[in-house]
Amino acid sequence: MTVFLAGDGRPFFGGTYYPRPAFQQLLRAVDDAWRNRRPDIDSNADALVEILGRSALAEPDPSRATIDAFHGAVRTLLGNADSEWGGFGRAPKFPSTMNLGVLLRAWLDGQSRDVRGAVTTTLDAMASGGMYDHVGGGFARYSVDERWLVPHFEKMLYDQALLARTYLHAASAIGNPEWLQIAEETIGYVLRDLSAPEGGFYSSEDADSAGDDGHHHEGRFYVFTPDEVRAAVPGPDGEALIEWFGIDEDGNFEGRSIPTRMAARGRFARPPRIEAARAMLFDARAGRPRPGLDDKVLAEWNGMMLATLAEAAWICGRADWLERAEANGRFLLAHLRDPDGTWRRSWQRDAVPRARHLALAADLAQLTDGFTRLAEATGRAQWLDAAIGTADALLDGCWDPERGGLFTVPRGAEPLVARQKDLDDNAVPSANSAAAVALLRLGALTGTGRYLERADDILALLAPLMAGAPTAAGHALSAVHLRHVGTTEIVVAGDRPDLLAALQRRWLPTVVVAHGERTASPLWTGRDDGRAYVCRSTECLAPSSTPDELLTSLRTALGG
Hints:
Blueprint: E1 2-5, E2 11-15, H1 20-36, H2 38-52, H3 67-80, H4 97-108, H5 113-128, E3 142-143, E4 151-152, E5 155-156, H6 157-174, H7 177-193, E6 204-205, E7 208-210, E8 216-218, H8 226-232, H9 236-244, H10 272-285, E9 293-294, E10 297-298, H11 299-316, H12 319-335, E11 344-348, E12 354-358, H13 361-378, H14 381-398, H15 431-446, H16 449-468, H17 474-485, E13 488-492, H18 497-503, E14 511-515, E15 532-536, E16 539-540, H19 547-557
Parallel strand pairs: 13-14
Antiparallel strand pairs: 1-2, 3-4, 5-6, 6-9, 7-8, 10-11, 11-12, 13-15, 15-16
């Protein structure tokens, strides 16, 4: 991005991806305008600053923050869904994970087969095309075409967090184990290639890497010719792999082939012979020049990955993932938080590793969610304490007492030309929608009315957006669903792994679970060891002593 600023910091013109000749012309034009048409520049700057500040002036509308907004969004999303290739709208296509989350919640609520069809078509098509790395796991950022064939090859941490989460939820809700494979391989990619030794997760890998000619080419690390596959996997197994991934002499990207499963869409489980050949191709690919690594550790994206990893460990019963999630939690507390408790946004291992920049609202919201999910998965009070401290920092530093909602930057940060609020869900959840979900869950676990009240205030602020542009409010709509369906609280007291196991291996988006170490939460009041308690808004069913009793109570609480 290139932005031209006046001397006082006000932007007056900007854009992205200028080719070199056009950029040189642009520089001359801006220079001419600066010298000869200064009033026009001042007018542009004033208009842009006014636009930048509009989000802070948005008014709440609690009357529209209802479950009807959620149901209306489901209808809109189904109307926009591509019935052949999945996704929403035309190329270029982005994953739209938050909108898929809305449809998955609607499916659990018993809505029509159209919901299942839209989700299934999208998830199968995304994971069959070239946007998914069939050799090494993980997703590229988006597809340049409607079929998910040719991606922009950059791999972002936030996409891995959101897509692994979506495939995990869908595998549980709809019952497709092949989607679970996609989630597992995506998490495996992050743990292998985006993990800092200290415990954090790196931000991304570049799209470009060096080719045989010494120049950098987009996607070169990921594409193959048939002869390159044969060199890596000799004999019949190599030929089988060529057929499995659709690699041919013509190629599907600049004379080479992006491995895909488009010829057998939705079939990802690899027979042992193919899996052994894939592993050989992976090893051979590892000898190529890798794409560049962005080794910043961002609080926001790490919070997202922490939440995904903790939830995946819980659902899949993966103790190794849970251990890695706790290592990430310890890293965040040790390296992205100052001794006085001030959170920072970015950490990097320079000559002297250090954290920089005050954390933004999005950082604190995602960290709150990540620590809350880690507390649920481990039963350790330290993670619930971390979630509480982070949520308090978020509300104390970013809350707007006049109109509600969260300012993007906290009080005391460097003054900007406009103080904005992050409202739209785009590639990642907005700060406000992320906070709404996190505060609702944390409020249910702790019984803290302040968190629930602030979540309601945020939903009132986001209500006009949810009604007017639901495709830009997927995460906010999930918060509305959680708020109006209601949270079910479960306490498993004492050492009862059998009761915990009854709750695992399923996605329960409106359930929070307390177990392990007792905390000051009222959920723990009067709880006898050896039993499970299922409650809604502190109104509890009879305690359960067996897994069957617990599941019966859970079905009752969830309305079915």
